[in-house]
Design a protein that fits this description.
Helices cover 30% and strands 19% of the residues. By secondary structure, the protein is of the alpha/beta class. The chain has a single domain (3-212), classed as Aldolase class I (TIM Barrel, Alpha-Beta Barrel), CATH 3.20.20. The chain has an eight-stranded parallel β-sheet. The protein starts with a strand and ends in a 7-residue tail after the last helix.
Length: 219
């Protein structure tokens, strides 16, 4: 079954605990935390204290997406704060295999994110060793952006590479995801959605619609 991970970047931070409880009640599978440093991406979001607070309010898996330079410096801290999945950007880590090994040593699942212009083929040598690939369907840094039209073809290439290598990796899509876009994302196992869930009158209905189209691969 496809997983849905509401992006807390789109939540009302003045009522964060209530917003978390609302999406949990609506059927969310994971909670997605976008960590931005103002250097790797042109925005600043939130950091370790907020992740630790989210962990106290929820037992759902925390899907922590590090949009930061030198992610290897912060792996241990985010693991201690309560992250279950730690995803870093290929473009920010020259020694990606080392970062993946460290995440696994800490008992967490390791993900690699790709910016929209980064081809999936760069992952050929490391794909069998990661747990998740996050395909950015917008240029990272801000919520509420429009989905980029070349992403479905990129997902098809990644799915074919996964099958060729027999890699037990989840494919996640992050950015501009809505119930209208979801049918184009058949290869995705996890959908990250922010505005379309948190701004909806009925978040449960949106989550159900996002989940309706089953992925081609399960893991």
């Amino acid at each position: 079954m496809r997983r849905v991970a509401p992006s807390l970047l789109a939540a009302d931070f003045g009522h964060l605990a209530a917003q978390i409880q609302a999406v949990e009640a609506a059927g969310a599978d994971w909670l997605h935390c976008d960590i931005m440093d103002g250097h790797f991406v042109p925005n600043i979001s939130f950091g370790l204290p907020v992740v630790a607070a989210i962990r106290r309010y929820s037992r759902l898996p925390l899907d922590v997406h590090l949009m930061i330079i030198e992610p290897e410096r912060y792996i241990e801290a985010f693991a201690e704060a309560g992250a279950d999945i730690i995803t870093f950007h290929w473009e920010a880590a020259p020694h990606a295999d080392r970062v993946v090994r460290r995440i696994h040593q800490l008992g967490k699942r390791a993900g690699i994110a790709l910016n929209p212009a980064t081809p999936v083929e760069v992952l050929r040598d490391i794909l069998p060793f990661v747990d998740l690939v996050c395909v950015m369907s917008v240029n990272p840094g801000f919520g509420g952006q429009a989905f980029l039209p070349h992403i479905p073809q990129k997902l098809q290439r990644l799915s074919a590479l996964r099958a060729e290598l027999r890699a037990p990796v989840l494919i996640e899509v992050d950015g501009g995801v809505s119930p209208q876009i979801a049918p184009l994302l058949q290869e995705a196992d996890v959908l990250v959605a922010g505005s379309s869930i948190f701004q909806a009158p009925d978040p449960a209905q949106v989550i159900a619609l996002l989940r309706q189209a089953s992925p081609l691969h399960t893991s």
